[in-house]
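Box 3.1 A note on notation
Throughout this textbook, protein chains are presented in two layers. The first layer is the amino acid sequence; the second is a token string describing backbone geometry. Keep the layers aligned when reading.
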Amino acid sequence: MGPLMLDLTGCELSAEEKELLQHPNTGGVIIFTRNYDSPKQMLELVGQIRRYARDEVIIAVDHEGGRVQRFREGVSAIPSMGSLFPKADENLERSRVVAKEMGWLMATEVLAVGIDISFAPVLDIWGISEVIGDRSFHQDPKVIVAVAGAFIDGMFEAGMQATGKHFPGHGNVLEDSHIAIPVDKRSREEIYNLDLAVFEQLINANKLAGMMPAHVIYPAIDESPAGFSSKWINGILNQELGFKGVVFSDDLAMHGATVIGSYEQRAEQALAAGCDMVLVCNDRSGAVQVLDSLPIGENVELTRKLMTLRAKCTVSWENMHSHSRWNDAQKLLDQLR
């Protein structure tokens, strides 16, 4: 399995995409709204991807709920996590029950259309970042750990592993790394005691199999964005916090990554810093540049790690609507609305 995750242009594979899936450096595909028409169509597209891929691939989607939910037609409308739990500190146990069922529902529906993982949950603090905002569970790290931990438990019961983002925290910078280069000027102590504490506790609880670092610069620790920093990934995440799972770069086409240089330089530095797989989205020429620039060779350890993320679907799409837990989750959604 190769170290690049790329995207697709439409609802079925183009001739070029069939060729790209044959490249030995292709190890994953990320699905967007433009690739989705219906559950039946998605199952067919996923089948195409796996049929034309040279090797095994991880198929992923950003499907958190709220404004970041790539599939709408034919699937449940899951609210944003922040909108679900504004009073979590008043009834934390109830919030954990709701979170667990929303995690199970999200994961079940994503798995049922053939996808391996959703890049979820968002573990950022609900601070000043508008791009994060109510994608976050809460303002309090202790509440995030409790409620996001329950959401992850639901995902796991559905058969999906969790990927935490955006390490070590994107919530306390105003700028959006999609269109800017955010710089978090807080002290090391502030970052560790607030944002990083969420990731640390969930790693210690063995809740996270994947991690996605932020395209944010934290000058108190390093001058490179976290996703390109060996201090952050190899040093703090892997060695200090003991994380052993898969590290995905955030999209290398985002503006927050441009500080590193060309696509080739971004991919090379992210992988050297400790990322296992890099994402290039919405820029086909950039994805091709990365495919052709990376060395080709068998990476047994990368394949082993990525295969731990493969789907373990517990409810098929055909049986889902008659499944008692799915129907109970629909009733819960009605109550939440």
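Strands lie at 4-7, 26-31, 58-61, 63-65, 68-69, 117-118, 163-167, 210-213, 246-251, 277-280. The chain is about 40% helix and 10% strand.
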